[in-house]
Amino acid sequence: PRPARPRPPRPSSACAAASAMSDPTDTGLNSTSDIRTVVVVGVIAVVAIDLLFELFRYLVPGIYELRRYIASLDVRDFNGNPIPAPEVTSKWPLMWLKAVYKLHERDLRETEDLDTIMFLVSLKFGAIIFSVLTFLLLTILAPIYATGSNKNLPYNNPQYVQGIDIISLSNLPQDDPRIYATVAFDFVTAFVVAFALSMGYKKYAQYRARYFASANPANYAVLLEKIPIEFDSVKEIATLFEMIWPKTLAEVHMVYYTPEVDKEKKEYDKCVKERDYIEYQLSQEADQSLARKAFDLKRKEIYHVRQVELKKREEQYTTGNAFIVFKDKITASTAVQTQLWFRNREFQIQNAPEPSGINWAGMSTNHAVAPLLRVFVALFLFLMLTLWAFIITFTQGLANIRQLSTVSGFQWTSFLLDLPSAMITFIELFAPALLLMLINALIPIIMRALVSIQRLVSLNQIDRRTRNYSFAFYVMTSFFFVTVSGSIITQIQFILDGGDFFTLVAQTVPTQAKFMMTFIASQAAITFPLLLIQLPRILYRPFTRIICGHKTPRQRYNLNKFMSMFPYYKFYALASCHALIALVYSTMAPLICAFITVYMILAYFCMKYCLVFCYFHPSSGGGSHFRGFFQHMYIALYIKTGTMIALFTITTQYVPAFLELLLLPCLIASNVFIWYR
User: What confidence score (pLDDT) does residue 560 get?
Assistant: First the structure.
């Protein structure tokens, strides 16, 4: 520790408040002990949640071994093959880690779909990237920062730093030549990330080629959208495709708008469920009234089946979509790359989704309504961003409550300082991060609802657009709003005293890494272990058992399958956003790389167990989410470079800013080369 030195006399009035804001006797997020507290609490949370997981895994094996349960029912995929199920893991504590570790990628290729494999590849490459950066930055750049002189400034100087800020960019004066080490490591960081992404994209291309070469029904078909009215019939479309690709057409299936048919199908399903339960009751006791009721329900089922067939023959309205099935995969692949019509907005053709991944409701949406829905979604997102801006500002006020209570106009918050010190530490350290984590959990749900009302023809398209919306929203709120509002609140007294706004905020941006570390640690210690527990499914079971009973095989099957589809869109967006935050702050505060490395490793093991043992996907997107992850990582590099250029420019360090500017064309060139090679 630094030897104690005499404190300078404090000025009065506003300057005294400003001095108090930087007083090292204050605890809160300005001391190294707080980061140790975050680490210790995070470890305790992980251990406690793992103990609960071990208990539930022993008591409720149906949730944690869902694949084995489904395989025992002889459920088949769309090719008629049995559902693959891994071996049951040992019930001894932590043995699931051994089972997950032994599952190599070559083994997963035989049992898992490409979505699962590419998601785990994304996390694996993320862990590798940040492990390399952690070693390089903490062994070379952090010691360079530690030799800076801002830690020796007076306490009431806005550039004074302490605690873990000593190993950050904030410890270097503006004219210090050691800043060029930051620029050099920005280039190193960009190279490491781009090289790893190129390796990952190469692997993705290889897997994707195997996927298109497989005997998947979707590889033999294409989806035709926005069919002109003169071709809106099976005969006309078949004639057109036979002219272009003779003797290769197998079938043409028009997609019709059939609300009455859907209504009859729902009534049929309702009757089947009721009869299923009554027959279970009959197996327990012979009752003439129950037998009569079961017979009546069977008659209703037959009636609804006949109604479905009759209403299919009635006049129906086409949705402007059709599925074209070819006799071979090569023709289908060629058709996707062909422009069929002289008007680009008509006869749009794309790869057909897998049979169980079709969004029939989206196909029924009118083309004319689609632009209005997009406008509604844009307005709703703007209102959400406005609301989240106020919430984020409130959380940053909590994170800096000691500094805020000394600012004129905010002294009313000083009553919080009368609380016990442990409570104040919780409010400053954990409350903002936990609050941000809770409100962020709502974002994918809201985005999914907004995307579902749009005209998208496959569930995979819905997932990809939800992922993109969630990622953009996370970046705006968890990165931009947090960084800007936290920097303003930290320097608010100096700003009110007439200091240069942009310079003060730019100098404080690196210090916001402390909050980001706490936020990432909270996500790693809570989100992924809780996913391992499958808490919503655990809570759902006793509630529905009381109401429904779940006596029949159908009811037990539906109970175990509740929330059994993995939300790729949510966790891709979360991982990409946290990787962006870590990349932006990696050379400003190198310690954050250690936090994101632990985050990626925990995510990899927890997600791998859940995907292999606890979740079941009837359809696959062919690993297409990885393309979005690839672009999100490059967006992170662009934002990192833009942030460094802005910081250096605002603080009048034009040479480092120019050098950072030279990095942008290199990033763009590598992005284009890897994407289109």
Answer: 73
The larger pLDDT score, comparing residue 32 to residue 171, is at: 171
Coil/strand/helix, residue 326: strand
Instruction: Provide φ and ψ at 84, rounded to 5°.
Output: -70, 140
Q: What is the mean pLDDT of residues 182-211?
A: 93
Asked if residues 27 and 33 have their Cβ atoms less than 8 Å apart, the reply is yes
Put residue 500 in one of left, alpha, beta given phi > 0 → left and psi -120 to 50 → alpha. Answer: beta
Helix (H, G, I), strand (E, B) or coil at 587: coil
Count the Cβ atoms, other than its own, within 10 Å of residue 606: 26
**Tokens 């408040």 — which residue?**
17
What does the radius of gyration of the chain's CA atoms come to, in whole angstroms?
29
SS3 407: coil
Helix (H, G, I), strand (E, B) or coil at 224: strand
pLDDT higher at 443 or 312: 443
Residue 366 confidence (pLDDT): 73
Residues above pLDDT 90, as percent of the chain: 28
- The reported pLDDT for the residue numbered 199 is 93
Taking the C-alpha atoms of residue 65 and residue 82, their distance in angstroms, rounded to an integer, is: 16
Q: How far is CA 36 from the centre of its chain?
A: 28
Task: Fill in the amino acid letter for 140.
Answer: I
CB 436 within 8 A of CB 519: yes
CA angle 654/656/659 to nearest 5° reads 110
Q: Which long-range contacts (CB under 8 A, 24 or more apart) does 445-453 make?
A: 446/384, 447/473, 447/569, 448/569, 450/377, 450/380, 450/381, 451/377, 452/361, 452/362, 453/365, 453/373, 453/377
Rounded Cα–Cα distance for residues 646 and 480 (Å): 13
Average pLDDT over residues 618-641: 90
Q: Give the CA distances from residue 161 to residues 148, 167, 169, 315, 494, in Å, rounded to whole numbers and listed in that order.
A: 10, 10, 10, 76, 15
Closest-CA residue to 428 (of 208, 565, 420): 420
Asked if residues 502 and 663 have their Cβ atoms less than 8 Å apart, the reply is no
Please tell me the least confidently modeled range out of 81-90, 266-275, 517-526: 81-90
CB of 595 within 8 A of CB of 582? yes
Q: What is the pLDDT of residue 348?
A: 86
- Distance between CA 396 and CA 487 in Å, rounded? 9
- Kindly report, residue by residue over 288-315, the tens digit of the pLDDT: 777 777 777 778 878 777 777 777 666 5
pTM of the model: 0.86
